[in-house]
# Entry
Amino acid sequence: MLNLDFRLACLIITTALAILGNAVAVRGIQAGVNPRTGRRPFRQEFSTFKNSGPAFDLYIQALQRFQQRDQTALLSYFQVAGIHGVPFRSWDGVDGNNNAGYCTHASTLFPTWHRPYIALYEVNTVRYPDAAGQSQPDLANKQLQANGAALHTLTYQLITQQPEYGPFSNTGYSDGRGGRYNSIENMHNGIHMLVGNGGHMSNIPYSSFDPIFWLHHANVDRLFALWQAIYPDSRVTPQVNTAGTFTNDPGTTEDIDTPLTPFHWDNSGQLWTSATVWSTRTFGYTYPEIVDWGINNSQLASDVKSRINVLYNPTGSISRRSESEDKSSELQLSPNAMDAQWFVNVRVQKSAATSPFFVHLFLGAAPTDPATWSFASNLVGSHAVVDTSLLSSANPNLPIVRYGQIPLNHALLAAGNSDLAPSNIIPILTSQLSWRLQNLDDSPLDVGQVPSLKIHVVGQEVKQTVREDQFPEYGPLKVFRQVTRGKDGGLGDNDDAD
# Structure
């Protein structure tokens, strides 16, 4: 789901910036904000926004104007897009010493850094290029569709199961995950790679030059805001950034007060921090699911849980499951509505390969033609291992571990396995679960070239809720080593599962 709105069109026209003194103050659009009640405009879901008529037309015109600005101008599209990665130079006077962009990947600052970046705010780009370098949007769309069910499930499972900010926020968090390898950055990485597949979006240092980058990150911010509404007491936790950024040296411990360089909030040069960008109110917007004025945190959390259940688990509550059973031809149980959840956890070092690659998971054997792997009929999902070495290359060989997760329920149900009890599922997964690694030119990557790859299966019992404003109760995740034992890249008996 991609999010943008008329306000971003205005944002591009006015730049939502105040050039005061020697610094650019990133303030967001404040028009339409009621300072008394806190009521503010929504960032609309993109399928709604594109049919809005004049508002969408204005956005396209504004984007064209933005991209036509002289590249030497501080507020040109080239300069603003260049903050994220290349060309690795200072912006708005915020200097750094590292051969990297400002963006914080595998960092505790990942969700918060992108909030002022989107508030700051699309250049000709390539997606899923062929041998001649031409875009193949039909194949990019097929990849996205083939992974749609997995991403849908991951979204619900992350928001409902992960109340702690650290493991929620990024793929580099390693201080005990309890088997929950998913994160908002894990899902974010998948979209980058599935859209780009060798084009701009999959090359992280260049990805911000693709207009879809901004739509993608508006939705990442939406998911972050939904999570914040449900867990209002959770905050940024300190974490060592092993990779570093343009301004933050590798090994820096980042926390809620670490400056989100290069974004200034006033003309005196004060920089935004995670603490000061924590609320979307600061930048004058919200999302349709989050109407947070005139109510307390408890009521807001209850309202947002109801909206999330409708969007991602429409047959989860007992009352809706009864409706599903009565009208089975009209309403089927979703993968999130079952009494058990199954996942594949993936762990790998960032330096495992010199370029990005996919880990494709299948129920059964992979097709013989690697070019069809990413949208095969028996594909479970594709885990993206992004290459951030150009973003953070001061120490490119550091053993930086990345964590990711792919759900299994949707694939098991599609294959006719409605009984998700371990006694039924473990034999199926042991005999049928397979994986293949693939470079972005569709060529196979031998598992032996990635010795740090560790794949294993986890499962848990689930008690579905009786109320639509509550989430299911989840049991602890149990590791089933027998599924991957003896398989290349599978978790060994002596390997740590966390």
Notes: The first strand starts at residue 17 and ends at 20.
